[in-house]
Structure formats: structure tokens, C-alpha cells
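User: Predict the structure for this protein chain, please.
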Amino acid sequence: MKKGFLKATRDNGVVYSANSCNFRLTREDLSKLIENSSVAPGRRGRICSHHSNDEPVHEMFVAHERDTYVRPHRHLNKSESMVILTGEVDYLIFNDVGNLIECYRLGEPASGLPFYQSTRTDLYHSLIVRTDWAVFLEITKGPFNPSDTVWAPWSPAVTSGEAKTFQKRLEREIVCTEQN
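Assistant: Here is the predicted structure, written as C-alpha cells:
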């Protein structure tokens, strides 16, 4: 990564934050994010263009490996948008008791698949990464408050021994649409 980033390693991956008000990324930066995330906890990482958790808009370039478990969750009073930059994911939406109600295959723009997803309500959602790596731009409202994220009570925690089994079951059972 270039000098324009501050690095932090957390339990759930590596996080880089921009240390300039004039921020841009290159393909090389995204490749380096994937490389650094491949040896990070949870094999995931992100580059934040916001400087602090208190900012009103949070824009994050997120890298997830194929086996990354994204625990189903919802955000209280926040929308969340994502643009797929590389790779493919299945975007899952669940009802309050854990039944899958929608699933969309998303991919980078050149794939011909939908590449943008916006969830405007308090819906439980998750991702299944379908390629070796997926990188996406995620945008949501700040400031960051951990209590704004509600983990689905019917899903195992990331640190649970049941997480991988739950994820593999979802991967086998879901059939996503490729239409908008």
C-alpha cells in the first residue's frame, strides 16, 4: 500500500484508513489489499476513505476471500449500498426468523451481472463470496456505533465452531437469481 494509508490489524481483518483529504485508489492498491488480507485475521480487509468513525458518511473498499463468513445482520436506521469491483457474490436477504427471502448474484460490471445493491431498510442480510476474492465499495451512514448492527439471533457468531457449517449449508441450499 502507498504511504497514504494508516494500517490497523483487528480481530476481523486488516483495516487501512486514508490519511489525506485527497483520496484515490488504483488497481495496484486493490491488489495489495487482497494480498495483505490473505494473511490477515479472518482473511479479509478494508480501506476506509473516511478518517474517523464519527464522519457522517462511511465509504469502505472491502476485500473478502471465498471462505469469508459474513454473519447475517441488519443495521438500525441505516441504508447500506455496495458496488462490486472484482469477483462475484451472492447477496442474501432473510426474514426475522432466518428464512431466505431473496438472493441475488452480483458481479463486477464486465460480468453482465448486477453490480450495485442498496438495502434501505432494516433487513437481515449476508454475503456468500463465489470467487477466490471479491472486492466491493460499501457505503453507509456514520457515525459508526456498534449497537447499530444487530446480529441475527438464529445465526452462529463468527467465532463459533458452527459458523463454517452454517455457511456451507447456505452455499449448498441457495439458488440466486441473476436478474435485476
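The mean pLDDT is 87.
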